[in-house]
Structures are given as structure tokens and as C-alpha cells.
Amino acid sequence: MTLTPLPPDAAPPIRPGPVQARAPLPDVLRGLALLGILLVNAQDFAGFLEWTQTGLDRAVQVATDVLANGRFISIFAMLFGWGAAGLLARQGAGIFLRRHLTLLLAGSLHYVLVWHGDIISLYAVLAIALLATARMTARGLVTLAAVLGAWWLGLGLLDGLAALRGGLDAPRFTGLPALSPGDTYAAVVSGRAADFTGELIGGSLYNGAWLLALFCLGAAAGRTGLLLRPHEHLRLLRGLTVGGLLVGLPLGALLAWLNTRGDYASGLLAIPVRMGGGLASALGYVGVLGLLTVRGRLGPLRALAAGGRVAMSNYIAQSLIMTAVFYPYAGAQFGQWGAAAAVGLALGVGLLQLPVSAWWLRRFGSGPLEWLVRRAVYWK
Q1: How far apart are CA 356 and CA 338, in angstroms?
Q2: How far apart (Å, rounded) are the C-alpha atoms in residues 278 and 251?
């Protein structure tokens, strides 16, 4: 049997087993992304509507939209693609499939037992498509990402503009879970279990092209060594910083304005604006942190690396804490808090996780869920 050689910019395979050496930039980015995602998800956990916020709550919502909304989920998705593509190149399809089946199981349990906003299961399913990109060059991956991303954003923009032109007099959709005072844990879990398969399929079909575009960008970063050897890519990092922020920040301001409006068309338009501007700002943030890494000026931002190293454990812990505060079977605060209080709580939880993560790593060397996943994938 003749094997087709890997392209020159693809990583060669190495012996099976988890990666031992770590570069700082990916972990810092992952830790920052995890914190930023929690700030945005505070709206879903707490059950407030963006367009009804006033005073300090509105100011916090605007800041969240401009600086965080769509930004950190884009970084997280690109890092997922970076890690998945790297795993495939190093360990082969067998380990790759075993890991993503394990993540699918973990994400399914998270969705059903804890929180309806799980992304682990969706990422695990869509990552299988990366098998078809294993021998693509970085240039090919970026081209594929551009095609998929432009198609997805274009369709979303057309839908929003059609609703705007049609003058559809309909209220904005909320996307919030259907929770009522007095709901028991058993009832909530039963409802999520009934919805899970349909939501996973629907999410894969609706978000698939966009998430695959982000995965491909992450895979391209892996091919070029952008995150592991940022000193070799100074010109690119400067371009990402300037171009990403010049595009992303104005789109963030537009998103903030759309999120003051409660009509259906604004809700539709907010989706491509959120994700398109989010990707631009995300690339800008990668550029900034990459340049700081090269110059040895990460400073306090290095503390984010501990959170990034135990990202899965922290992600699930965030869901447990926030649902314990807000969901009707526990703290029952759903719908009672505005943006300022909810985002403030999320910020406190996310920052507290950093020293806890550092302590845990010093004591055990790996997060608890990371350890379980590694055992399931590598059987050791």
C-alpha cells in the first residue's frame, strides 16, 4: 500500500500518547476564551433579555456586545480546530475518532443533566469533517474557511434583510430555556433529554458551515505553527491585530445597537453581525496576545493559562455554578437579575477559577475531566 506524503507544512506523526510539552499562547487564549464565553452566557443562565436592559444594565450589555459577544466563542472554536487537527496529524484517525466520541458522550451528559447550551457535543460531531482536510495545506484550509464562512454569513444577512424589507411585525426570539417557577430538576432533565437529538442535528445543520470554517482556521494555524512559534509570524500577528480590531470593534458597536431592539428583523441581523464581527475581533485578540507573547509582556495574563489547561473541567463547573444560582430547582433566580449583576457574578466565578485551576494543576497535574477523557482515549 502506498501512502500519500503529508504536505510540507503539516505536522509529522509522533508516538501515541498525550502531548507533554505546552506553549503558553494556546493556553492563555483558551483561558481568556473560557472567561469571555461565561460573561456572554450569563444572559442565558440568568434569563434576561438584552433589549430590555436600562441604565447600568444596558451599559454592561453594550460593553459585553462590543468586546465579548461572538468574540471568545470564535477563539474557542478555532482552538478546538487547532487541537483536533493537531491530534489527527500526530496520532491518526483512530485516536481522533475515539477522542471525539468521548467528547460527544461528555457533551451529551452536560446538555441533558446540566445545561441546554452545551457546545462540546456539537463540536465533537462537526469535528469529524476535519478528517477530509487532513492533507490540506494551510492555504487550502484558509480558502475553504473563507468559502464556508462567506456562504454562512451571506445567508444570514439575506434572511435578516428580507425580514427588514418585509416589515414583519413580530417580536424578537429569545433563545432562552423554557423554565417556570417550581420546575423540578427531574422535569427539566426530562425536557432536555427529549430535545437533545433534535437540537444536536438542527445545530449541526444550521451552524455547521460556520463552525467548520472556524475549525479550518484553527487547523491552518496549526499547520503554520502560529500559536506555537509566534515569533516566526510577526507580520501576520500585526496584520491580525490592526485589521481584526478595525473591523471587529465597529461591528461590535452595531451588534450592541441591534441588541437594544426587540423586533424580529433585528434579531436575525444580529446573528451574522455577531459572528462576523466576533471572528474579526477574535483574530485581533489573537494578534495582540501573540505579539505580547513574543515580547515577553503577557504579565498577569499568564494566569489565564491555568484556566485554559483545565478548560473542560472549568466549563462544566461554570454550568453547575450558574444553574445552581438561577435555575428553579436550586437558587430560583432565573429572570430576576439584570445584565450588570449577572455579568458581575460570571466575572467573579471565572476569575476565581484561575487560582483554583493553578492550585489543582500543582497538586494533580491535570483537570479531573481532562484526566477522565485521557483515560478513555488512550486507555491509560
Answers
A1: 27
A2: 8
Q: Which residues neighbour 331 within 8 Å (Cβ) at sequence distance 6 or greater?
A: 324, 325
Q: What is the pTM of this model?
A: 0.93
Q: Within 13 Å and on the Cβ side, how many CA atoms surround 3? A: 4
What local confidence, expressed as pLDDT, does residue 380 receive? Answer: 73
Alpha carbons within 13 angstroms on the beta-carbon side of residue 84 total 32
- Report the 10 Å Cβ neighbour count for 368: 14
Return d(Cα 207, Cα 73) in angstroms, integer: 13
Residues 6+ apart with CB under 8 A from 330: 323, 324
- Give residues with Cβ within 8 angstroms of 337, minimum separation 6: 46, 48, 326, 345
**Secondary structure (3-state) at 10:** coil
- Residue-level length of the chain: 380
CB-based contact 142:236 (threshold 8 Å)? no
Rg (CA), the chain: 20
Query: How far, in Å, CA of 365 to CA of 368, rounded?
Result: 10
Q: Report how far residue 49's alpha carbon sits from residue 207's, in angstroms, rounded to the nearest whole number.
A: 22
pLDDT of residue 21: 54
| Residue 46 near residue 324, CB atoms below 8 Å | no
| Cell reading at 36 | 469571555
- How far is residue 363's CA from residue 351's CA, in Å, rounded to a whole number? 19
Residue 109 confidence (pLDDT): 98
CA distances from 258 to 38, 72, 210, 291 (A): 21, 19, 21, 32
| Cell reading at 199 | 437540537
Picking from 37, 14, 23, 1, the residue whose alpha carbon sits closest to that of residue 350 is: 37
- Cell numbers describing residue 196: 437533545
Q: What is the DSSP letter of 299?
A: G
Query: What is the identity of the amino acid at 82?
Result: W
Cross-strand pairs, 171? 263
Of 162, 1, 164, 19, which is closest to residue 82 (Cα–Cα)?
A: 19
Greatest Cα pair distance in the chain: 68
Give the residues of the chain that fall short of pLDDT 70. 1-21
Q: What is the pLDDT of residue 368?
A: 97
